[in-house]
Amino acid sequence: MDLAQTLTQSGLSSKEAQVYLSLLTLKEALPSVIAKHAHIKRPTAYLILDQLSEKGLASKVKKGAYYHFQPITPHNLLEKQHKIYKNIEEALPELLSLHEKFAVKPQVSYFEGKKGLIQIMEDTLTTSTDLLCWADVTLATKTLLEDYYPQYIKTKVERKIWLRGIFSYDQNALKLKEKGEEELREVYLIPKEDYPFKNEINIYDDKIAIISHEDKMGVIIQNANIAETQRSIFNFAFKYAKIAEKELLKEKGVC
Question: Are residues 57 and 92 in the same domain?
Answer without folding.
Answer: no
